[in-house]
Amino acid sequence: xxxxxxxxxxxxxxxxxxxxxxxxxxxxxxxxxxxxxxxxxxxxxxxxxxxxxxxxxxxxxxxxxxxxxxxxxxxxxxxxxxxxxxxxxxxxxxxxxxxxxxxxxxxxxxxxxxxxxxxxxxxxxxxxxxxxxxxxxxxxxxxxxxxxxxxxxxxxxxxxxxxxxxxxxxxxxxxxxxxxxxxxxxxxxxxxxxxxxxxxxxxxxxxxxxxxxxxxxxxxxxxxxxxxxxxxxxxxxxxxxxxxxxxxxxxxxxxxxxxxxxxxxxxxxxxxxxxxxxxxxxxxxxxxxxxxxxxxxxxxxxxxxxxxxxxxxxxxxxxxxxxxxxxxxxxxxxxxxxxxxxxxxxxxxxxxxxxxxxxxxxxxxxxxxxxxxxxxxxxxxxxxxxxxxxxxxxxxxxxxxxxxxxxxxxxxxxxxxxxxxxxxxxxxxxxxxxxxxxxxxxxxxxxxxxxxxxxxxxxxxxxxxx
Length: 466
Known about the structure:
The protein is α+β, with helices and mostly antiparallel strands.
């Protein structure tokens, strides 16, 4: 007489419940059993009896054969296919062990299948990226420049030290304009049309630094400081670049020369020691720092990401700037954050919402899928020359720091990070596996979209178990 085996349908029952849009409590009510019994069935800690099969078929008008289909063999087959991947070639994996895993530990089997699915799709994505051309991403000048800055955590000790010395010299001379005058360079403010729509131009022949007169005071001062960086600190900047191996293109070196000149200009306007002390004393109140140093909100926020001097570190910040279409024009990472390379595309982050409230500062507690928590400050800024009919560009800038450091900021004073309400965000939709997100644009890598014949959720996609 053939032996009757207990029927375990945990994963199948759980998938059925989710396809029907039911909670464990709702299914328990339908089947006239307890929610805890449903949970035990789904975890394969209880077999499905013949009576339970009939209840399921009658209650949800399903075919018994569809419900009772033993998925253990299917799991074993799929696991066998996965474990034949060359990456496991040197591991002894007897078929009996695979079958036992599939039958006795369906949850672990699902996890392995999902993980391997994500791995396979990522490999395909990388293959497609490489097919677009050898080194298409690696040799991109903008990406290469970003990697260089991120590799230094946006801090260059030699440049900051030299800038402090030069800033003291400029102060002693009576300011940047007077210091340049002593060097034989005259600063003149001219209309943009005379400058052919340039913001700054150096007339070498007449030794004149020409600045657009429609810039605000902070922008004028920054342009003058940038010229000083390009001239008085040029050798220091080139030395910082020479310390790195050769770049893939001349364009990368050009972009980095400009970026480091801007870095030096900020260091001249906000010398490290003075700025770091003021930031701590004013509890990182950006508006207060703007007033103290005569700089713009973006300039002060940018400078806060550079406070990484050993022994005199400030709060570690990540900085991002983007436009209303979501295009990221600047990323600066002074803290090694996981979303520094790709982050900024999640619509739940307030940096995308500040355009509705121009000029207003918004704060937000964030949590990434891995559980990492951050505190964010975001606001709009405008750029361009002033005047009627002159083009002005509005962008959003955001600073984010680790939640445990937020207590040092005036914006989070008195708030316990552990109890603060957080907004769950992702690095990008492709890398975020939060299935319940209603703001999702595309499915994450490694998840198959479930057909919604029986169910349509508020979320754009419903995902299969594996």
